[in-house]
Amino acid sequence: MSKIIFLPHKILLPSGGIFTMHIGDTILDIALNNNINMQHACEKSCACSTCHCIVREGYNLLSKITESENDVLDKAWGLEYSSRLACQAKIIDISSNIKVEIPLYT
Questions:
Q1: Would you place residue 42 in the very low, low, confident or very high pLDDT band (cuts 50, 70, 90)?
Q2: Is 46 exposed, middle or buried (0-12, 13-18, 19+ CB in 10 A)?
Q3: Residue 62: which region, alpha, beta or left (left: phi > 0; alpha: psi -120 to 50)?
């Protein structure tokens, strides 16, 4: 089974982590279910950018970005082409691994 790989984060996950993923899970759900205290100030309602993450591999295995997610994401610090809101990025394909970076600042 494919895995989601969280790259090391200085505060939240110093050693990184590899976890099981299932279709329909969001990146944020997987993080929270595995004791990664990712910020999510709007409680997963796509109203803030505190759960901003960067998908380093496997971007195509996630749901398409919506217009509202894209609008909120514009407020994120350190925005990159493969940035997503972890609360909105749902796993739609488990044929390969996904590699995620949580930015140091959100």
A1: very high
A2: middle
A3: beta
In one letter, which amino acid is 69?
E
**59 CB burial (10 A radius; 0-12, 13-18, 19+):** middle
Q: Are 102 and 4 in contact (CB under 8 A)?
A: no
Could you give the CA distance from residue 71 to residue 93 in angstroms, rounded to a whole number?
25
d(CA 31, CA 89): 12
pTM score of the predicted model: 0.95
φ, ψ of residue 43 in degrees (nearest 5): 55, 45
Distance CA 45, CA 41 (A): 9
Secondary structure class of 19 (helix, strand, coil): strand
Q: What is the pLDDT of residues 54-74, one digit of tens each?
A: 999 999 999 999 999 999 999
